[in-house]
Amino acid sequence: EEFAELVTSRGEPVILTGMPMGKASALWTPDYLTSSGIETDTTVVVDLAGHRKPGTRRNFTFRKMTFGELIQRVSSNCAGSAEEANNKSLSPVVSFGEKYYLRSVAHKAPADLSCMFPSLAADLRPGMVLPGGTGECSHTLWPRDAYHSSVLRIASPGTALWTHYDTHDNLLAQVRGRKTVTLWAPDAEPFLYVEGSSSRVDDIVVPDLTRFPLFSEVSDKRWVASLGPGEALYIPALWFHHVLSHPKCPEFGDMSIAVNVFWRCLPEQEHDAGDLYGNKDPPAARQASELAARAGAAISQLPEPHKSFYARRTIKRLAEQL
Amino acid sequence: EEFAELVTSRGEPVILTGMPMGKASALWTPDYLTSSGIETDTTVVVDLAGHRKPGTRRNFTFRKMTFGELIQRVSSNCAGSAEEANNKSLSPVVSFGEKYYLRSVAHKAPADLSCMFPSLAADLRPGMVLPGGTGECSHTLWPRDAYHSSVLRIASPGTALWTHYDTHDNLLAQVRGRKTVTLWAPDAEPFLYVEGSSSRVDDIVVPDLTRFPLFSEVSDKRWVASLGPGEALYIPALWFHHVLSHPKCPEFGDMSIAVNVFWRCLPEQEHDAGDLYGNKDPPAARQASELAARAGAAISQLPEPHKSFYARRTIKRLAEQL
């Protein structure tokens, strides 16, 4: 607990190495997973372009498939997979080159890995990623009574998740494969062209500075974490993060399997009680946003110079409450 | 009407010379006014320090006195007044050196000079300050159907009125004595330490830049108008103005008498229907301010970094409506 406190107390990302995660790191090969007898139906993102571009038509689709089919498809991207020959027979969902991404969320309650994939949860124990289990290792690296959800993430090599923020603290534990996580502190928000909880800057390696000139202010303020098996990253709430599963290559070219745990960073009543994915803004913030929109709408009726004059004074009034 | 449109169309102060104001300029001597038989009781500001300092205990008091007593007291400040000898018998309200300032407002309806001082209103006609009258001169320098109120202002030499804004357009017509009006555009507001509708920068000649460092940004953006008898100043709504009645001196050392007319600058329903003095913020602006205060209060409950993060987003949301 003291160590967990130490990890989160600075409010900055922390990489943890040598993370205890049971036998999962050794066990979770494509062979093991396809023959595991897991019957769970999964909803998989089938992605063509590597990531979604907010503000454009989505370039991915959802497909329901069994866990076994997912593993077959994901691992057929991987060099040296034993299934490679067989998987040739699986035709693409959309077209060749597509990538697959599972984020095991539920839609009626926050996801819980122990319920959705009990055998995989067992593989992670004894460890410090998931709570409970045998009891011999009851410690986790996050505050147990603030637990929100736990999610399995399986991705084809090269899959990218666009830059976004969550509203819960998050521990991303890498079990297999390799990920590069690029992060920005919450105060980078004004420069990231945020829409909802996602940045519109789709290419963070070669950003389009014509469309996103402000991004140059924070381009070199990124934090970069490279995670391999047995490593975990603490992602504080509101930190923007972009996640890239390492592209296929001789050394790391394997599907990425990670487990992440969300936990509350605010008192329970300040979080949205209906937040399934750990990313809903606190009700106080949503309420403030609505009030501010109404305030802006009221002022917008006035002609100049009244509009600018009262806009400044209204914003000042808001700021005085902080 | 075209000329009136020309005066107001730029949204900037304009000095008008040779303003028709009947026989008032010639007639309104202390002798004439004390012997005018006006019985109206007036509430006079008795001022010790030359102006109020917002944020400190007020350094003026109110005293009810007859119009005749006011004129006696005000003109006893003046060099060469015929009443000077007699007025020695009037003891000070508070102490020697006090100044007197009448602003003829009513408290149940907007002031109307023609009702409160019909004989003085008659002296101003035919002219272009007050509406109506003989009909031979039915033009005013402001839109008649937007008329709000008309106010008589009589001040001892050296009386200053602190920097403030009104929410109605205003024509300040100088009948007797001399005034210096110092103005700032509405966009100077962030630098004027405004509380309510008044600037806390009490000394605009030798400003206290230790207490009011931002004032240096706008100190040389002031507009200065010197008004003598027969001259008038258009003061657009939201323009900050500081008014100094000229101190006693051989040339101009006389009480200041001015008449000002307020008129609506917004559609009638956008002004506060209960605005007696021409200075109430529009209901839309007041409503916006309350909403913004509630928004700020909601966010202020959150700890950092949530508070700063959502404050920025909330203000952005407000600004997007403008």
From TrEMBL, chains A, B:
Question: Domain JmjC: where?
Answer: 98-280
Q: Name one GO molecular function term.
A: tRNA binding
Give one Pfam family, short name only.
Cupin_8
- Which GO terms are recorded in the biological process aspect for this UniProt protein? wybutosine biosynthetic process
> Cross-referenced PROSITE patterns, in alphabetical order?
JMJC (PS51184)
Which top-level group of life is the source organism from? Eukaryota
Q: Which PANTHER family match?
A: HYPOXIA-INDUCIBLE FACTOR 1 ALPHA INHIBITOR-RELATED, TRNA WYBUTOSINE-SYNTHESIZING PROTEIN 5
Family under the similarity heading: Belongs to the JARID1 histone demethylase family.
Stated name of the protein: JmjC domain-containing protein
- The species is Micromonas commoda (strain RCC299 / NOUM17 / CCMP2709) (Picoplanktonic green alga)
Q: State the taxonomy lineage.
A: Eukaryota, Viridiplantae, Chlorophyta, Mamiellophyceae, Mamiellales
